[in-house]
Amino acid sequence: MTNETSMHAKPPYGMIAILFIGAFVALLNETLLNVALPSIMADFAVDETDVQWLSTGYMLINGILIPASAFFIQRFSDKKLFITAMSLFTLGTFLASVAPEFWVLLLARMIQASGSAIMMPLLMNVMLAAFPVEKRGAAMGSFGIVMITAPAIGPTLSGWLVEHYSWRMLFDVVLPIALLTLVISIFKLKDVTGQRSIKLDILSLILSSIGFGGLLYGFSNAGDRGWDDPVVYGTIIAGAIGLILFIIRQLKMDEPMLEFRIYKYPMFALSSAIAIVIAVAMFSAMILMPIYVQTIRGISPIDSGLLMLPGAIVMGIMSPITGRLFDKYGARALAVIGLTITVVTSYFFSKISMDTAYSTLVLLYTFRMFGMSMVMMPVMTNGLNQLPAINNPHGTAMNNTLQQVSGAIGSALLVSVMNNRRDDKIEDLLANGAGNVEAGAQQAGSIPLDVLHEGMLAGINFSFFVSTLIACLALILALFIKRVKPPHQQDAETKVEDKKIAVE
Hints:
CATH topology of the domain at 1-195: Growth Hormone, Chain: A
Strand content: under 5%
Radius of gyration: 23 Å
CATH superfamily of the domain at 1-195: MFS general substrate transporter like domains
Largest sheet: none
Order of helices and strands: HHHHHHHHHHHHHHHHHHHH
Distance between the termini: 29 Å
Number of helices: 20
Shape: globular
Structural class: mainly alpha
Number of strands: 0
Oligomer: single chain
């Protein structure tokens, strides 16, 4: 019996549980801090530009290290890699909790990010190795609970903690869980995937950092600074050039840091395209809803987070169910149904008004998340199923990297669409003499508050309409999904069939 067969006969559930917890706290931590940024600004006397680096820096480290995760996963044992990643994350969490100065907090966030960047690709790779193709849907569905629920719960939990305690409590809550996971992993973790004696190409790492780091930084700042800002278009151009050079170098190498030749497998290429489109569409609600409910409607941050909580719970419940349905029926039926729901709910969001009921917003958002729960993991798993086992680390690294980049691009695109539509609407309203300047107690030359809110609503509605069109594109692509198996398994099954024919 081969190692692979043995592993498939009895997957390492204990090890996967440890990896699940590590990935959960890492992902939860990624979204915890956003609500607390105003409190941190007040404590350390820093402005919006400085404090935003707590999120931007975290994202950049992820964007730089995730592409390199394919090398780390192949070169080092699962146990050593996870312990190293969890140690860095735990150290960063502790430093953030006790940070006496802002620069210490920023350094702590980057140390956290250097650990969390490895956890998600490592977990996905272990699960691909531990389960046979026909059972991967259920396994990856369970993984979807971590991937989807943790970031969605983050804002709600953060809002409640910041309202009742100091922002440091955000790290105090995570620290004991991270520390316990680290201790357990030292004694209980074992190696599942094999290692290969490969060397890290330093030039590839530099080009990857410039490429993905430049794109992430440029697009993440486009919404605030505007597309005509030299920092924005300069870093995007540098990132694009770096990425092109990185791809060219990888295609010329026998042992690339990140294997781009996996795109010769059509279902993996299709799953990547759909995942990019979905990530752009999904970010619309995550960004636009808080702006709508807090800025326009005046709903508190914690109630804003609670609005999104049922959707997160539904996604968490649906992930394992969707995984089992994927094993039975494949990805296409699930993706088509899920994306149809996403398209319809996104269109309804483009019609929200100043007095749309809170309960209506909750229902719409929950149904939208229900639709998306049927898409992301089945489509991603179907694409990974077509790859040979040796390319699994590259497939997981590629998917995680694309999610980071497409999320930043989607955010920039939708915020820009919203701002442009808002400005046009405000200009039209002011030209037609709209707005109650006296009631709004506005200063001379400023925009009346009711006009500003109406303009923002028009921008949000139009952004959701653009998101609807983007989701329609994903729906069209989903019609071309086919159920696949890894090449080696297809070859083995073909030989069995040939033998049967020969005997007959």
